[in-house]
Amino acid sequence: MTSIRERRGLDVAAVRDHFPSLGRALHGQPVAYLDGPGGTQVPRECISAMTAYLERSNANHGGAFTASFETDALLDEVHAAGADFLGAYDPAEIAFGPNMTTITFSISRALGRDLRPGDEVVVTRLDHDANVAPWLAVAEDRGATVRWLELAADEATLDLDALDGVLSPRTKIVAVGLASNALGSVTDVGRVTEAAHAVGAVVYVDAVHAAPHLPVDVSSLRADLLVTSPYKYFAPHLGMLYGRRDLLERLEAYRVRPAGAELPGKLEVGTQNHEALAGLLGTFGYLEALGSAYGEVADRADRRGRLHAAMSAIHAHELEMSLAMLARLASVPGLRLYGVADPGRVGERVPTFAFTLADHRPREIAEHLARRAISTWDGDFYAWELIRTLGLDESGGLIRIGLVHYNTYEEIDRLHEALVELIG
Question: Which CATH superfamily is 12-43+302-423 part of?
């Protein structure tokens, strides 16, 4: 296997050599995995860590025997690594669950205990429904009022100038996304948290779509609660939550009685997926190596620094790929891109591109691309409010292309050629 070697800029060939699935071919062509927003491929370090755990240490935690001790150590280490990845300073502020949606429903019920009739909950038209539906449900249960933060005039971003009109002294919860899973638009969450905290509201940030592309720092975002999905950043199917310790300690979570009130246990309902958590540690190890090779790391022994450097290097690489993708898509006749299309604003997006193509439904486009070994998604991607606000729900939604750091310029060219072939 090629090692990640020190050089300026990502060596994508070396990166790809860490991902066994990228060697797959269909119909005589290598598979182009342009479906990253739905879940990424995993590196060999992740697979090896999962295998090693299942072969040697597969046991529940809290026991008085060797495999259980090893599982306890694994859980301590993955909480610490998760804190480093998100810029937190207390491993007890990290909790895991099966996925972001399950975690969000759980947290919404816990926060909902304090909601009273007339209190207000703010959600947005841009978010994945997993950061909308749980809050709508708890608001209905508790008699709270739902307020909406609408799209800006560009229909690509949120209208943050309307924040003062949406928030009020009755606002208790604000749910917002860091990056749109459908359009790729990045939201200035720091501005949202500042305004929300000014009225005493708790801010719940969906960073699922941002985490594969940007360094996420909960301290700079000033998030009260922030959730990610490790399977979107090269790890197994998991959900990972950050919460301010003082908030989590007073939160009355729904749990079984033996779990107790200690962190993070009271938030981690039932036995966790230990083998997947081992895989996440393997993925963090891969990212640490990436950060050491390509990033500016003052202290090579600092895991937090290595992880931040890796995500910074990925972000810089993906900005260049985004410019190439914007140029290719702009040259396809009949293609309408939704989201930030101006190359001068490329810093306001991640490399996720959603579009329609004249005279072709999104599913037809996805099927055409699949026959050419190009994996993409079509539909609403659970961005339920957004697709309906854009008036696309009855026409099949959008086709979505999602790049991550292991994708190549050659794959972008293949996509362009396949689209031109379809309209030709």
Answer: Aspartate Aminotransferase, domain 1 (3.90.1150.10)
